[in-house]
Specification:
Keywords: Acyltransferase, Transferase, Tricarboxylic acid cycle. InterPro entries: Citrate_synth-like_lrg_a-sub, Citrate_synth-like_sm_a-sub, Citrate_synthase, Citrate_synthase_AS, Citrate_synthase_bac-typ, Citrate_synthase_sf, Citrate_synthase_typ-I. Pathway: Carbohydrate metabolism; tricarboxylic acid cycle; isocitrate from oxaloacetate: step 1/2. 52% of the residues lie in helices and 3% in strands. By secondary structure, it is mostly helical. It has 17 helices and 3 strands. Strand 1 and strand 2 form a beta hairpin. 42% of the residues are buried. It folds into 2 domains: 230 residues, Citrate Synthase, domain 1; 106 residues, Cytochrome p450-Terp, domain 2, CATH 1.10.230. Bound molecules: s-citryldethia Coenzyme A. The site of s-citryldethia Coenzyme A (SDX) has 22 residues, from loops.
Length: 393
């Protein structure tokens, strides 16, 4: 304690809320959504089932699941005029930049459901966000490659439909590859929530002023973009390409350890996990499966990533600081193998995390202890002094 306030930069030891959504034990490497181990959900559930679980607290019955899926399908389209937004961006705009703008703009389109004190309005907004994120994400990609936007197909499931909107074009319909669909489903489940990470905390803090949910999720996307957070999956690929060859690993490990060098091992370390990130273990398995199925067994980037992980995990610096691969270390290699460009990696994270953001926003809005978030500070500026007119300065 310093004076009246606890000084806790980075909120290392401050609980900002009570939450019943996600449980993490960072020392044991445990992650559970609503009590269910992440390993079971990743292997057996569908992403949309997990979305229901995170939002409503229980796994859906068959009837509830069918109803929820059809509600989400009902909301997959974006307004035709929203397409004009995309044309306003440079062709080479980063898709995360497009996402921040376009998702924020949804609040200008859905006045019919913006009464955040009305539970039904909150629920419709949540459904709209989950349903429209893949459409907006795929449209951002299409804008980058100069192809027309592909409309959603409501006969497909959530992950199939996303791949369809990414890879179909007016001349050729993409047939979803079951291996790709399964991999995306697993990755989306693993990215869906992670309690009070930076972007989720941003969504909560924005929402605490009673801002509308579309604006709050746009704030979450902005926070996720940073390379210390969701932007790390893109940064990992850039890093692996820069390292280039196993013979260079020692040099880069030395750079990561050097406090005078800004280089850090991307996809390594975590605020909460001081043991393995259980998601990284699962993603490494998916990576093996995808590369084997793609007959890409000796993918040089995967070889390089495996070797880099091995060297780091044997290095005293990383061992002492309990730095392990995190969720972002292997995900980019999978996305790349599926043909998704590097600039879309963090967008993929954002599509999946929208479910978590929305679940936390809904939980907060229902919390009787809910009040505006307003941290205090320790003032370090000038003491009181008198104004001097400009001519006398
Ligand atoms: C995500 O919070 C979440 O839950 C996030 C997330 C989610 O699902 O929402 O899990 C998603 O954001 C994953 C993290 C992705 N980021 C990266 O991979 C970027 C590289 N990693 C880091 O920059 C870092 O490890 C963080 C941001 C992830 C964590 O930062 P912390 O908790 O502030 O850790 P720290 O800076 O206190 O690290 C402790 C020590 C320091 O050394 P010392 O000062 O004690 O000597 O470890 C060092 C750090 O310099 N360190 C690293 C390192 N990460 C930490 N050294 C080299 N390479 C690294 N990657």
């Amino acid at each position: 304690h310093t004076g009246m306030f606890t000084y806790d930069p980075g909120f290392v030891a401050t609980a900002s809320c009570r939450s019943a959504i996600t449980y993490i034990d960072g020392d044991k490497g445990i992650l559970r959504y609503r009590g269910y181990p992440i390993e079971q959900l990743a292997k057996e559930a569908s992403f949309i089932e997990v979305a229901y679980l995170l939002i409503y607290g229980e796994l859906p019955t068959a009837v509830e699941l069918t109803k929820f899926e059809s509600t989400i399908r009902h909301h997959t389209m974006i307004k035709e005029t929203l397409k004009n937004f995309f044309d306003g961006f440079q062709y080479d705009a980063h898709p995360m930049g497009i996402m921040v703008g376009v998702v924020g703009s949804l609040s200008a389109f859905y006045h019919d459901s913006l009464d955040i004190n009305n539970p039904r309005h909150r629920e419709i907004s949540a459904h709209r966000l989950i349903a429209k994120m893949p459409t907006i994400a795929a449209a951002s990609y299409k804008h980058n490659v100069g192809e027309p936007i592909v409309y959603p197909r409501n006969d497909l499931d959530y992950c199939e439909n996303f791949l369809h909107m990414m890879f179909s074009n007016p001349c050729e319909e993409y047939t979803p590859d079951p291996v790709a669909v399964k991999a995306i489903n697993t990755l989306f489940i693993l990215h869906a929530d992670h309690e009070q990470n930076a972007s989720t905390s941003t969504v909560r803090l924005s929402g605490s002023s009673q801002a509308n949910p579309f604006a709050c999720i746009a704030a979450g996307i902005a926070s996720l973009w940073g390379p210390s957070h969701g932007g790390a999956n893109e940064a990992v690929l850039d890093m692996l390409n820069e390292i280039g060859d196993v013979s260079q690993i020692d040099k880069y490990i030395a750079k990561a350890k050097d406090k005078d060098d800004p280089f850090r091992l991307m996809g390594f370390g975590h605020r909460v996990y001081k043991n393995f990130d259980p998601r990284a273990t699962l993603i490494r398995e998916v990576c093996h499966e995808v590369l084997e199925n793609m007959k890409d067994n000796d993918n040089p980037l995967f070889e390089l990533a495996l070797e880099l992980e091995k060297v780091a995990l044997e290095d005293e610096y990383f061992v002492e600081r309990k730095l392990y691969p995190n969720v972002d270390f292997y995900s980019g290699i999978i996305y790349q193998a599926l043909g998704i460009p590097t600039s879309m990696f963090t967008v993929m994270f954002a599509v999946a995390r929208t479910v978590g953001w929305v679940a936390h926003w809904l939980e907060m809005m229902n919390d009787p202890e809910f009040r505006i978030g307003r941290p205090r500070q320790l003032y370090t500026g000038a003491p009181m002094r008198d104004y001097v007119p400009v001519a006398k300065r």
